[in-house]
Amino acid sequence: MALILVYSVPLWGHTYPLLGVAEELAARGHEVLLHCGENHGKLARDCLGRSAVAIAALEALRSGGTPTDWSRCGESMLSYLAVAATEAENLYPAVHAALARRCPRAVLADELALGARWAAEQLGIPQVCSYANPPAAPGIGSALGLVREAQETGADLARLLRRMNSFRRLQGLASDRPYGRSRDDCDPAIVFVCPSLRRQDTELPTGHLLVGASLVARDRSHATCGRGDDETPGAAYVSFGTTFDPGADLYRVIFGSLAPLKLTVRARIPPSVQDLLVDSGSQNAEIRPWWPQAEVLSQSNLFVTHGGMGSINESCYFGVPMLIIPQGADQFRNARRVAELGAGIALDHPSPDPSEIRNAAARLLTEPTFRNCSRELGEELRACGGARSAADVVEALLL
Fold it and tell me: What is the pTM of this model?
């Protein structure tokens, strides 16, 4: 069995699917060296600790560099790439030293984990890149592609790409590919999405495999939990992920809009916002800073979400129709695609009025077509293989 590095950035939507793959690789007998954010460490230890084979190491590589403020990522698409570049520059020496010392046989790294990807490239270690959404074109990646789609292509982007090229040149890497790929455009890559949900305006680059939703084992077990689809009034879950904070005003509108529907509402809301929601209709909602999302979705009839691809995958996995209020990044495109497929309703501006939310929620709860379409997408996501298919791609590098 082999030592494999699984490297993510401290963003939940990027880390969670990789945890499922790490768990699967460990269950197959591999030694997994995992890097993820500290706030994901407990779940990572729980998942890997339950594997059939003991894990030799679960270590953070951040000790060798300056911590990076990933909370800035929600500002714009360009900020995602800028933070990723800063992290790569801060952590590259520590990551490179750790890889040289441990000598993993393969690396599985998130597309924004540039330091790990560049270090593996420099050391000649085979690698697989993971994406939440398919890249815009070979060698570009979804983050840089989204920057260009958002027309953030002025002087700031040019300066950032020059900076990335300069850093790569200092490490002895090709400086004409700042976003980086390990060898060429045909390097293997996994994309955590199914054919129907992926972007339809570009072709999937060679070597990229759509693996669907990757859930850890304990969350996959919720797929068979019973949920009374005909229950009245039903249950709703509200979450805008861990990166985007829509602010107290939108939460007030959502709670007030859902109140007449007599739903059981569970909401994941950052602690900094909770104190601002007193007497705003939130007394009818159970608010926490964190919920086990898969478990809650398996018991829900409606998901009010920002439309991140990870949230969409999990909602469809459990057959829950979505009311999507996108806030930024790829969420507007994701929301349009879900609406086109009939699995939800997209409100295409970040601050809808109460009647829009209430009317959309009522339709999603009473028209079975939405639930049926979500379930069909869930079946497609499962058919792609998830963590098992992703682990197969990584193991193919070992042959």
Answer: 0.87
